[in-house]
Amino acid sequence: MVAEKRLDEFIVFVIIKTKAKEAVMLQAAMIIIGALGLALVIVGMFIEHPRKIYIFYILGGIFLAIYSIYVRNVIFIILQLVFTAVAVWKLAKSRKK
Q1: Could you tell me the pTM of the whole model?
Q2: How far apart are CA 88 and CA 83, in angstroms?
Q3: Cα→Cα distances 74→6, 8, 12, 80, 81, Å
Q4: Tell me, what's the pLDDT at 53?
Q5: Whether pLDDT at 3 is above 90
Q6: Chain-centre distance of CA 55, in angstroms?
Q7: First CA to last CA distance, the chain
Q8: Is 15 helix (H, G, I), strand (E, B) or coil?
Q9: What total of structural domains would you count in the chain?
């Protein structure tokens, strides 16, 4: 009886530890995605070619939107969706010229 209880406690402990590690890994991945998005937008600011600028803005905006959804910040979700949509529109507009 005692051995079964200890085994059950051990199994619960292992499950909790595994979930905690998964949560930490997810959080780290989201921070990397957010940082990558930020880096892409910043690099886009220094590019001279208009089409390349919008490609960097679109990719950066998508990564930052994913991060914003993860942190559940409605203001930044809306900002990134609008930012990305405008960049897509401007890219399409520049290709017509």
Answers
A1: 0.81
A2: 9
A3: 45, 41, 35, 10, 11
A4: 95
A5: no
A6: 17
A7: 78
A8: helix
A9: 1
DSSP per-residue string spanning 20-83: HHHHHHHHHHHHHHHHHHHHHHHHHHT--SHHHHHHHHHHHHHHHHHHHHHHT-HHHHHHHHHH
The residue assigned the tokens 């897509």 is: 88
**Tens digit of each residue's pLDDT (9 = 90 or more) over 26-58:** 899 999 999 999 999 999 999 998 889 999 999
Q: What is the pLDDT of the chain when averaged over all its residues?
A: 88
Cα 73 from Cα 51, distance rounded (Å): 29
Domain residues for the domain of 11 are: 2-96
